[in-house]
């Protein structure tokens, strides 16, 4: 049994064939999935997906570099979203300086709002960080994110960043990137992160793992991520599957095994 701890089932690449996506997921032994909110505009569709399927939950939040809605989400609005049925986390949130030019204070304020909402709701955070790890950890510390913990999703940072996040009670989630041949440093991190602090994900429809690299990703493919981690650590696949599944339900306490 496996859980895809981060996917985007509302995105067109998956939603256009959702029955097939869910069927292939089941056939691959992936029993549950967390579909992630990225905008205010699309949250209702994300939420509807989770409400329609007993083995799917969702988050509530606005992606760090997303600005299509033209306004910032307020704390009370985010708390209301996060209080909804089958919402088990706040995010994805965090910091992403990769494509952003000029002042980035708006990102840090949005991140702080998400952490405050998570603390008010006592629900974990789903954190995205890109080209911003130092500021990400700093804001997490300043806002006491350790009170609710969460997951560093699609982790691609250094071992030192992983340590910093784990010191705050966060889990480290690996995506298909860990299967890429040139991801040598990330493979080493995957060897070192304690199994009891690890999750697996697809971030689908992006980042398809080997042997599907270059194709649209889907939750069924999270099996390849777990297989790679098992190979890197020279342990049985079932051990990785069992640990990451147990970790998911330990972290996302409002999710129940279907």
Task: Describe, in plain words, how this protein is organized in 3D.
The protein is an alpha/beta fold and 258 residues long. The chain has one domain: Metal-dependent hydrolases (TIM Barrel, Alpha-Beta Barrel). It has ten helices and eight strands. An eight-stranded parallel β-sheet has the order 1-2-3-4-5-6-7-8. α4 (75-82) crosses α5 (105-121), α5 crosses α6 (133-142) and α9 packs across α10 (237-251). It is globular. The model has no long low-confidence stretch (mean pLDDT 97).
Characteristics:
258 residues, alpha/beta, TIM Barrel, 8-stranded parallel beta sheet, 17% strand
Summarize the structure.
By secondary structure, this protein is an alpha/beta fold.
CATH class, named: Alpha Beta
Task: Assign the CATH superfamily.
Answer: Metal-dependent hydrolases
The number of distinct β-strands equals 8
What is the fold named in CATH at topology level?
A: TIM Barrel
Q: If you average the pLDDT, what whole number results?
A: 97
Adjacency order of strands in the biggest sheet: 1-2-3-4-5-6-7-8
Radius of gyration: 17 Å
For the record, give the distance between the C-alpha atoms at the N and C termini, rounded to a whole number: 12 Å
Largest sheet, strands/sense/barrel: 8 strands, parallel
**Beta-strand percent range:** 15-25%
Helical amount: 40-55%
The geometry reads as globular
- What would CATH call the architecture? Alpha-Beta Barrel
Q: Which regions are unreliable across 5 or more consecutive residues at pLDDT < 50?
A: none
